[in-house]
Amino acid sequence: MLKKALSAVTWLCIFIVAFVSHPVWLQKSPKRKTPGQLKVAACCEEVKGLKAQIANLSNLLSELSQKQEKDWVSVVMQVMELESSSKRLEVRLTEAEGKYSEINNQIDIMQLQAAQTVTHTSADAIYDCSSLHQKNYRISGVYKLPPDDFLGSPELEVFCDMETSGGGWTIIQRRKSGLVSFYQDWKQYTQGFGSIRGDFWLGNEHIHRLSQRPTRLRVEMEDWEGNMRYAEYSHFVLANEMNSYRLFLGNYSGNVGNDALFYHNNTVFSTKDKDNDNCLDKCAELRKGGYWYNCCTDSNLNGVYYRFGEHNKHLDGITWYGWHGSTYSLKRVEMKIRPEDYKH
Ligand SMILES: *[C@@H]1O[C@H](CO)[C@@H](O)[C@H](O)[C@H]1NC(C)=O
Ligand SMILES: *[C@@H]1O[C@H](CO)[C@@H](O)[C@H](O)[C@H]1NC(C)=O
Ligand SMILES: *[C@@H]1O[C@H](CO)[C@@H](O)[C@H](O)[C@H]1NC(C)=O
Ligand SMILES: [Ca+2]
C-alpha cells in the first residue's frame, strides 16, 4: 500500500516537473537574433515578393478574364451557330420528311401498279382520283394513274383533292402562284401544261377522256380579301378534239352568287391560234387565254394572273363576272371533277 502511494507520488513529481518544463519544450531552437535593419529588409523583400506575386496573379486574373470574355464570346457564337445549324437541321428534316412521304407515295403507286397488272377488269381499274379514294387513298396530293390498255389511257400524273366535300376530285386546273402563263396555243391546251403542284391545265384530251363517264365539275375561287366561293355543276362533258372540246354543263349550285360559266355552256374551245368563238373579235387574244369563249366572257378562269394591287383593273384577268365583276382578277382558282355517281 505504501509502496503504491510512493510510486503515485513519484509519478506526480515527474508530471509536475514535466509541466513546469513545458514552455522550454515548446520553445523551438532559439531564434536567431537579427538586427533591426535586416529584419526590415527581409520584410520588404517579402512584401515585394508578395506584391510581385499579387501583380502576377492580377495579371493572370486579367488574362483569365480576357480569356473568359473571349470564351464567352466564343460560347455565344457557338450558341448562335448551334441555333442556325439546328435551323438548318430543321430544314433538312422537313426536306427529309417530304422525301419520305414522296417515297411512300411512290411505294403506294408501285403497289397500285402491281394491283393493276393483276386485275384487268374495268371495274377495278384506277381511272381517276375517285377510284383512288374508293381504294382508301385519303391524302390529297400527286398520284400517278397507271396506264390502262383496257381503257386506252396513258400514264398520267394527277393531283387529287381527297378532302373537299367528300374528296375523290381530280384537279383539272389550278391558278395560285401566277408562275405559269396560260396564254398558250391549241397544242399546249390539248396536251396540258404547267406544274402539277402549282399552276396547270391538265390538258383537253385528258379532261375529255376523264369526262367520258357522267361527271360533276366543281370550281373553287378565292379573292384577295381571303373570301372563298364555289360553283358546282351536276353534269360536265368536254367533247373530243373533232368537236373542238365543246363544253356541256348541267345545273349550277354553289355560293358564288351567279353562274358565270353558264354563258359558256355549249361553246367550243378557242386559243390564240384557233379562233372558234362566237364573236367577230378574237376573244382568246383579247382575254389572253384558252377557254370556251362565247362573245367573249362571263368568266375567264384561264386569263392572266394579276397580283394584289394589279388585280382590279383588267378585262383579261382571272374573272368571274357574277362575283367581283369583269375587271377583278381572282387570287386562287381550282377546277376539279369527279363521277356523278361518286359515293363517299
Ligand atoms: C509570374 O509567375 C511566373 C510563373 O510562376 C513567372 O515565370 C513570372 O516571371 C512571374 N511574373 C512576375 C511579374 O512575377
Ligand atoms: C336541272 O334542273 C332541272 C329543273 O330542276 C331538272 O329538270 C334537270 O333534270 C336538271 N338537270 C340535271 C342535269 O341535273
Ligand atoms: C347546256 O347546253 C346544252 C346544249 O344546248 C343543254 O342541253 C343544257 O341543258 C345546257 N345546260 C344548262 C344548265 O342549261
Ligand atoms: Ca372570233
Describe the structure.
The longest helix has 83 residues, at 36-118. A hairpin with a 5-residue loop joins strand 6 (215-222) and strand 7. The chain is elongated and about 115 Å long. It is built from 8 helices and 11 strands. It has 344 residues and is of the alpha+beta class. The structure holds 2-acetamido-2-deoxy-beta-D-glucopyranose (3 copies) and calcium ion (CA). Residues 120-341 form the Fibrinogen C-terminal domain.
Question: How would you summarize what this structure contains?
Answer:
The chain is α+β, with helices and mostly antiparallel strands. The chain has helices spanning 2-20, 22-26, 36-118, 129-134, 186-191, 204-210, 283-287, 321-324; strands at residues 141-145, 156-161, 169-175, 193-194, 200-201, 215-222, 228-233, 236-238, 247-249, 252-254, 332-339.
Q: What characteristic shape results from the CA principal axes?
A: elongated
Task: Compute the separation of the termini in Å.
Answer: 121 Å
Helix content: 25-40%
Largest sheet: 9 strands, antiparallel
Ligand list: 2-acetamido-2-deoxy-beta-D-glucopyranose, calcium ion
Going by helix content, strand content and strand pairing, the class is alpha+beta
Strand content: 15-25%
Protein name: Angiopoietin-related protein 7
Subcellular location: Secreted
Keywords: Coiled coil, Disulfide bond, Glycoprotein, Secreted, Signal
Domain Fibrinogen C-terminal: 120-341
